[in-house]
Design brief:
Blueprint (H helix, E strand, L loop, with lengths): L6 E5 L4 H12 L3 E6 L2 H13 L3 E6 L5 H15 L4 E4 L15 H29 L2 E6 L11 H21 L4 E8 L5 H8 L5 H7 L8 H11 L11 E4 L3 H9 L5
Parallel strand pairs: 1-2, 1-4, 2-3, 4-5, 5-6, 6-7
Helix pairs in contact: 1-8, 3-4, 4-5
């Protein structure tokens, strides 16, 4: 398994699902490259993993910057070689907002980081993967890739990422590179916990709306990402996999006009 994951790049790898993913690949013996805008958290995580005898390096990168992403990819290639794995976990959240009240600057920023940043990183690292005719890319989608949400900028971007995943899978597939996505449900990351504490998310609504009656753990999303990058998923490409404790199924079930 470690041979398949010699170099794993994780954007947004300093916190939340990205951090859990970085830890999962590091545990497998991979050389983990943590790309994030948060230098304090990124350097701390890399140092912690190195202290455990695992391989990890932090690089500062702003996904909104073409130049920064290109510099990041060039540095990784020069110091570690072509990556086997790219996990596009870097992104921003959004609170619910009415369409007529949303600040367009917020929309632009969400699109620039979540969608365009994913595309930039995929192009930068995908070029080396395609040349090597081997690699796996996993994008971070969301339940809002499938269902409407009042997070106007976030939801439109995540729906776009689902389509981007399918386009990339078709484009890169003949070159030996697989591209998939995960669509996490309500995941109890530090960012989610902070929103709960501010009253911006109602945990009871989440729990009642999930078939398994709980939040998703970041490590559970990381396990799914790890699987999608493994030889066991060699025939899987172009899919967006919900990891949601049954939220999509349960909310559709509960919304139906006939109930037992």
């Amino acid at each position: 398994m470690a041979e398949q994951h010699r170099v794993a790049v994780v954007t947004g790898g300093a916190s939340g699902i990205g951090e859990a993913t970085a830890r999962r690949f590091a545990e497998s013996g991979a050389n983990v490259i943590i790309g994030d805008v948060d230098s304090t958290r990124g350097e701390r995580l890399a140092a912690e993993l190195e202290h455990k005898g695992q391989k990890a390096t932090y690089y500062h990168v702003d996904l909104a910057s073409d130049e920064a992403v290109a510099t990041f990819a060039d540095a990784v290639a020069a110091e570690h070689g072509a990556p086997n794995v790219l996990v596009n976990s870097g992104g921003l959240l959004q609170n619910a907002v009415h369409l007529l009240e949303m600040d367009m600057a917020e929309f632009d920023r969400l699109w620039q980081v979540n969608v365009r940043g994913t595309l930039l990183a995929s192009r930068a690292f995908g070029q080396a993967m395609c040349a090597a005719r081997h690699g796996s890319i996993v994008n971070l989608c969301s339940l809002t890739s499938f269902r409407a949400s009042a997070q106007v900028g976030y939801a439109v971007g995540k729906a776009g990422l689902k389509m981007l995943t399918e386009i990339m899978a078709a484009d890169f597939g003949p070159k030996g590179v697989r591209v998939n996505a995960v669509a996490p449900g309500y995941t109890l990351t530090p960012a989610m916990q902070a929103r709960i504490e501010k009253g911006e998310r109602d945990p009871d609504v989440v729990i009642r709306g999930s078939a398994l009656r709980r939040f998703v753990a970041p490590s559970e999303v990381a396990d799914a990402i790890f699987f999608l990058c493994s030889p066991q998923a060699a025939a899987i490409t172009g899919v967006t996999m919900p990891i949601d404790c049954g939220w999509l199924a349960m909310t559709a079930y509960n919304a139906y006009a006939s109930q037992p």
